[in-house]
Design goal:
Strand content: under 5%
Radius of gyration: 17 Å
Shape: elongated
Helix content: 40-55%
Distance between the termini: 24 Å
Order of helices and strands: HHH
Amino acid sequence: MAWSLTVRPLKYYLQKHPEVDLRLANFAVSTETYGIALPFESPLLRQLNVKLLKMQQEGTLREIEAKWLD
């Protein structure tokens, strides 16, 4: 049997349920991208972009990903 699911939730599920007889394939079928929606011409866009860039540069986004998504 084969399933196609988003990898991160599946990894989380498998960590929480080691008794389940499932394994992840060692190849990617697709890549995932995420977005944040804001109203058109939102005054928050620049602030959000700057904060996300700083978090990326400081390694905070990777820390969040490792803790919650890997």
